Amino acid sequence: FVSSAAVVRGLFAAVWAFPAFFRRFSRTVADLVPQVIHSHGIKTHVLGALLSRRAPVIWHIHDYVGMRAVSSRLLRLLAHRCSLAIAVSESVAQDARRHLPARLPLIVVHNSVDCRRFSPEGRALDLDALSELPQAPPGTVRIGLPATFARWKGHEIFLEALTRVTSSKIRGYVIGGPLYQTHNSQWSRAELESRVKALGLEGRVGFTGLVTDMPAAYRALDIVVHGSTRPEPFGLVIAEAMACGRAVVAAPTGGAGELFVHDRHALAAASGSAVEMAAMIQRLVDDPGRRAELGARARAHVVQAFGRDRFAANLNVALSRVATLAVAAAP
User: Fold this and answer.
1) Has residue 1 been placed in a domain?
2) pLDDT in tens for each of the 331 residues of the chain?
3) Where residue 198 sits, what CATH number does that domain have?
4) Domain match, 216 and 106 both
5) Which one, out of 24, 93, 159, 317, has a CA that is 20 to 30 A from the CA of 83?
6) In terms of domains, do 41 and 136 share one?
7) Residue 25 sits in which domain range?
8) Dihedral angle sign, alpha carbons of residues 83, 302, 217, 247
9) How far is CA 206 from CA 45, 134, 145, 193, 310, in A?
10) Bridge-partner residues for 61, per DSSP?
11) 3-state secondary structure of 111
12) Does 119 map to a domain?
């Protein structure tokens, strides 16, 4: 829990520190003499546009511009300094088109997954040990929700869904932990543990905490669940789990809906519906062959559609386009 007073103090500290940061950032950019400025966050979009001289600016947009009123206004004001915007999904692009000037060139380049690192082969984590639970009996179907503790990631939906799955041979895992400092933006572990107890899931759900080796975490699961209750700009967890050959149940909202075809690469469950999520999980719990088939198709799909080679080729087209502008602007 972070108090309102702490949030206000943090904001004042950030405002106070900004001028010094801006000076350092400006000196760094000036020393580099970049031919292209390619930014990847709202703050760096603004700073890059303010500091651009002759170098063309590319905004790589990873979030919904319209969700941040102040940021969207700033980007509209500075859009004339940007040569190209790249959105990580068509969903993000549609949002950007609604909030940024129509004259700003905008293309979609989906994010990518390192399919060598995220693959079915390799070690798997001992999720029971990480969760301080007894080893699950042989034949247990392991079902996990990998996510930060942000309240919109659907932890409460996931836990309720597990109560609806009619099998004694399942164990759920909450993989991840708190990351943010924004007031009331995330669950505490104590809150989630209290829900587990209230739902009668004690001993059937484990909390691993933050995990650094995510490929090994995915491999330890039979079913990976994505439960976000608001649109995902892209949905990297979904793509990573699919690359690891896991059977995935996901809410197909926002960019997440662009990553798979329902019943071919993953199973879709309506965002916020514990009933639908449970039904999709039940299908996979009851059918190991279907899990394997879905995982194999998912892996092949991600390698073809979201692998690094595909991403590099698409990004190269965008950068070549801007490089032409850089050459034309050179003294």
Assistant:
1) no
2) 445 555 456 556 656 767 888 888 888 888 888 888 999 999 899 999 988 777 889 999 999 999 988 889 999 999 999 999 999 999 999 999 999 999 999 999 999 999 999 999 999 999 999 999 999 999 999 999 999 999 999 999 999 999 999 988 999 999 999 887 666 789 999 999 999 999 999 999 999 999 999 999 999 999 999 999 999 999 999 999 999 999 999 999 999 999 999 999 999 999 999 999 999 999 999 999 999 999 999 999 999 999 999 999 999 988 887 766 555 555 5
3) 3.40.50.2000
4) no
5) 24
6) no
7) 20-112+309-329
8) positive
9) 40, 10, 11, 9, 37
10) 87
11) coil
12) no
Same domain, 245 and 315: no
Q: Where are the alpha helices (DSSP H) in the chain?
A: 4-32, 42-51, 69-78, 90-99, 127-130, 155-164, 189-198, 214-219, 236-243, 274-286, 288-306, 308-329
Sheet of strand 223-226, all strands in order from the earlier edge strand to the far edge? 205-209, 170-175, 141-146, 223-226, 247-250, 267-268
Give the pTM.
0.90
Give the DSSP H/E element, type plus range, for residue 60: strand 57-61
User: How many domains does the chain fold into?
Assistant: 2
